[in-house]
Fold this sequence. Notes:
- The protein has helices at residues 46-68, 99-109, 113-121, 196-199, 215-225, 286-297, 306-309, 312-322, 345-361, 365-383, 395-404, 406-412, 436-446, 454-460, 466-471, 491-501, 540-549, 552-559, 601-610, 624-648; strands at 138-139, 173-175, 188-190, 211-214, 232-235, 240-243, 246-252, 260-267, 273-278, 325-331, 424-430, 450-452, 481-485, 509-515, 582-583, 588-593, 612-618.
- By secondary structure, the protein is of the alpha/beta class.
- The strands form three sheets. It has a seven-stranded mixed sheet. A six-stranded mixed sheet has the order 12-13-11-14-16-15, sandwiched between helices.
- Helix 9 packs parallel to helix 13.
Amino acid sequence: MKREANDDSTPDTASERPSKSPRSEPDTQAESACPICQTSLSLLTLELAEFHVNGCLDVIQLESKKTRRRSKPQIVPQPTSRPPLKPTGIAVKHEPTCETTKLSAVFSSSNTTEDLFAQVEQTPLDPEATSTGAYKYVYPQPPANVPGQKPAGPSRSLPKPLPDYKTMPGTTFTVDAFKYGSLDFCTAYFLTHFHSDHYGGLTKTGFLGHIYCSRITANCVTRKIGVSAKQVHPLPMNTRCIVQDVYVTLLDAEHCPGAAIILFEVPIDGGKVVRIVHTGDFRASRRHIDQIACVFTTPLVSPVLPEMLSDKARCRDAADNGKPQIDYVYLDTTYLDPTYSFPCQRQVIAAVGEACHKIQSCPEFLPSLITQARDSQRRHSQKHSVVDTPTPQPARKSVQITQWFKPLQQLFSAPPASKNKRRTLFVVGTYTIGKEKLFVEIARRLQAKIYMTPEKRKLLDCLESPGLTELLTDDMYEAQVHAVSMNVVNMRGMTEYLQAVRQKSTFTSIVAFSPTGWSHAGSYFPAVQAPLVQPQGIAAAELDAIYASGDIAGLVDALAVSARLNDDSGGRSFGINRLKPRGSPNSVTIFPVPYSEHSSFAELARFVCSLNCKQVVPTVFSTPDKNRQAGGWLQHWSDLKQRFEERAGKGFPAFG
């Protein structure tokens, strides 16, 4: 769970956060009991035990989110005489058969899903004010108050104290600080992206400040929340701007549309510059390291333009040879734990797209994949099972357990539809904004349209992308790809969804994807609870050997010494064979997908160690133990860099 300093409240779930430790998943072999309801599982087969535990988890997930969400959750209504899932206020339109040709045209101009979203992020902006010298985008300090707007009435509760990491040193700027009341000193409120744990506290009325953010985030703030456009100032991506005499550059954070890494360059006395990196929420990559170096090695008298940051060779040279000193790095530490090791995002997107294509074109593929996943899980469970024979339980326990699964047993026993009539609906769990690359890639591979709720559609319109708009439709019964709320992507929710959609469509089954980083943290059924992993020291001889051999991979291993975990983000590739679905190919199949929009532990290690930074400041806080562990790793990396540089006589290398 993500928490901020001095923040005792429970955060909104709009942004991707691990709701619980992945290591607390059920252990059907070691405990022989359901960890949720404590019912004995010793009389069940491994498959029935798995169904039981998954069912309990689904119930807990649905019920807990019903009570925690402030607004009505997106729960599929029960079937009625009217189509229960028909969007209110939007007429159902049946698309002509020539839509496939239009979809092909959309992707012909953008070869990949990544190219499509890159074009969206790079949409140019008109400058707000007159250019100053070589700089086209200049934002002077606005008036203190917005004309015609009155302050909000007195609040029932005092605002939370402002944490130190919300203010940027040497400036009157704050970042993602909207729930701390009126800040008299603040002249610019920067917003990294449109997730509620970052814009929380921002309302249509009562806010008197001025917001600076990307174009997409600005559209979301004005259209979704209703903040006056006079108070929201969009900044162009990959372009150095001047905001109140401070140089500001936004880089694509690869988190969600509009999410930005913010670079501040603050001129101070004596011609010196304070350099600050605020990552917001981000998925770290080598491209970020190179672009940060390129910006900070470019003199302030010269602007930084998108074509400069798109020059990979120029940026790579700046990172390898420039190594500018950075004073502060405000780091997204959501997954600063060796437990979290997941694959490269591009590999996951490609694997999911290829899997959907094969499911569509080859009827035997999905049943085979489910069988392989069950066999793999069975072998893993047997490997970590307890040798002791479990105590026999009364027969009535078995009856009680089977009663839990009558709905699921009926679902899995449903007769398969004729191959000529079968049509699969592909569903992707999403947040308010996020996971778009995944369902767009599925639509690209299937040459299909995408349906989503009117609320989600309204946010996607904020991207102002004609290419993306061509992929969307209001006809949920014809669209073969649906984007839904993450909290309904479970066996029970998808079963209800399929029953409702079947009323006016030819869909006979659902293949759903639950994309989140913590689905890949450890095994589904670990034998024991994993303790917190603390870093250990590295011998000088080991550092000398790494330096002498030039083995960067060895240096990566040294960063995570004592973790002893596979580094999927930079090691072996992720493919279809590593997808582990559960369910039935004749009805509902769910794929837990290790698709994260936050950096993995190894990616954080590479990012921090590749930058020449004086101080790293965490921006995500959890339990006291987790916080101490995160601080320990940051200190460990800092010590390692210092020792390596002292012995090698040169800077720490940037990772590829």
